[in-house]
Amino acid sequence: MITITAFRSVPPLAQGLVRDLRVRWALEEAGLTYRVNLITLADKNTAAHMALQPFGQVPVYEEAGLKLFESGAIVLHVAAKSDALRPTDPTGAARMTCWVLAALNSIETAVTDLAHIDLFHSGEAWTIERRPQAEAFLRLRLEQLSDWLGERDWLEDRFTAGDLMMATVLRILRHTTIVAEVPRLDAYLKRCEARPAFQRALNGQMSDFEPWAA
Ligand SMILES: N[C@@H](CCC(=O)N[C@@H](CS)C(=O)NCC(=O)O)C(=O)O
């Protein structure tokens, strides 16, 4: 049985964005059954959890003695099990890996630069200078991504784990209109979110949360 570790409760601003969503979505696309081990924010720094996730984060993935951390590594592991996420031809599979890494390395870094300012440092003096730079760089990356997409429905010629990862990264910007202002990306994200597997994953994460007590 596959077990993923997720948080039992997080602040509302994080609900629906916690990175176990990526793993749930991949497992739903692949049609694999799994159970969810819910931990508290206090549990994340215990020795037992740090032995599974060296940075005290979620998600964690366990399967028959295999223990994985990092959502990208986990999604790639799940993708290797399912044609629904990874093309069977080697070229298509390699291109899928490119997009998983592009989402995490070329886009998520720019996304989180801005999101951290907005969500964790809003109003602090240093953000007055830094935020416009972070937003401009992010907008450049998103325009480049939009140019790549062109008239395609997906990043390549079919849905892959690369789209799954890219969509979860773009969703981090839901507190802004930045994605909505790029029509192709807006449509792309909506296309990804309309997938039944995504809806099942999101509903699963949301229904697992206990009410947040600040
Ligand atoms: N690079 C990691 C990031 C994981 C991550 O940021 N997890 C967040 C929840 S979305 C977390 O556990 N935060 C608690 C913390 O960092 O202490 C991955 O993709 O798995």
Question: What this model shows, in words?
Answer:
This protein has about 210 residues and is an alpha+beta fold. The chain folds into two domains: about 1-85 and about 200-210, Glutaredoxin, CATH 3.40.30.10; about 90-195, Glutathione S-transferase Yfyf (Class Pi), Chain A, domain 2 (Up-down Bundle). It is built from eight helices and four strands, in the order E-H-E-H-E-E-H-H-H-H-H-H. The protein has helices at about 20-30, 45-50, 70-80, 90-120, 125-150, 160-170, 185-195, 195-210, and strands at about 1-5, 35-40, 60-65, 65-70. A four-stranded mixed beta sheet has the order 2-1-3-4, with helices on one face. It is globular and about 45 Å long. The mean pLDDT is about 95. Glutathione (GSH) binds near residues 19, 58, 70 and 71.
Q: At CATH's second level, what is the architecture of the largest domain?
A: Up-down Bundle
Report the mean per-residue pLDDT as an integer: 97
What's the number of structural domains?
2
| Overall number of strands | 4
Distance between the termini: 34 Å
Uncertain segments are none
The distinct bound ligands, ions and cofactors come out as: glutathione
- Judged by helices, strands and strand pairing, the structural class is alpha+beta
Share of residues in strands: 5-15%
Tell me, briefly, the overall form.
Answer: globular
What Rg, in angstroms, do the CA atoms define? 17 Å
Tally of helical runs: 8
The order of strands across the largest sheet is 2-1-3-4
CATH class of the largest domain: Mainly Alpha
CATH fold node name of the largest domain:
Glutathione S-transferase Yfyf (Class Pi), Chain A, domain 2
Helix content: 40-55%
- Major sheet size, sense and barrel closure: 4 strands, mixed
Order of helices and strands: EHEHEEHHHHHH
Pfam family, one: GST_N
Protein name: Glutathione S-transferase
Keywords: Transferase
Domain GST N-terminal: 22-86
